[in-house]
Amino acid sequence: MTPPPPDNPDTRDRLLVAATAEFMAHRFPDASLNRIIRQAGASKGSFYHHFRDKLHLYEEVLLRARQITMEDWDSRSPDELDADTFWDGLRALTLASAEAFCRHPELMPLWRHFHEDHRSLRHADGLKAIVAAGQRTLAAYLDRGVQLGLIRTDLSTAQLVDLYEAVDHVIDTWFFDRIDADSTVEDALALQVDLIVDLLRRLTAA
User: Fold this and answer.
1) pLDDT tens digits for 3-23?
2) Which domain CATH number covers 20?
């Protein structure tokens, strides 16, 4: 039997470009795989040659967007922080992360939809991997705060990370609502970071 011809390697990139546009325009449940395939000029067979399903495609879109977003992101090592600089260091970390996302406003609709959908999709291994990188960095900072006697010790590091992410989720919702109203991204960003760190300090300070 003659094997089928190899799929055009450009097809995968076209699918990712079309999927990025679709996931920016629609939340995950409403995004149409048929529209993506049609927009990419691909076939269903070629789609399944590259991706398992719509969720796998979504994961790949987010991984590519995160790589673009974080390519010039830098943060201070938590080991450099002392009792006088810890909270400023945590604020700088939060600000650097927020600014990295805002440097690519064209991707903001994608991150907004991810913010709205990721809790319902958190079982997906690919989405866990996207979130895990940020969790590891945050955990290192919080562990440093514990070492310095600044962070409460009746909660585990994992629980502290969950607390930070809960605060971050609430304030991200506020952030997106604010930039939809009458605030610039820059003004909302500064307030967003201050709110996150202030709330986290109140909740976790030793």
Assistant:
1) 444 456 699 999 999 999 999
2) 1.10.10
Q: How far is CA 136 from CA 24, 37, 132, in A?
A: 27, 35, 6
Give the whole-angstrom CA distance, residue 185 versus residue 77: 27
The answer to the question of residue 1 being in a domain is no
Nearest to 206 by CA among 159, 140, 149: 149
What is this structure's pTM? Answer: 0.80
| Of 26, 19, 14, the residue nearest 109 (C-alpha) | 26
d(C-alpha 101, C-alpha 170), whole Å: 17
Domain carrying residue 14: 10-51
- The span from the CA of 57 to the CA of 48, in Å, is 10
Count the helices and strands in the chain (H runs, E runs): 9, 0
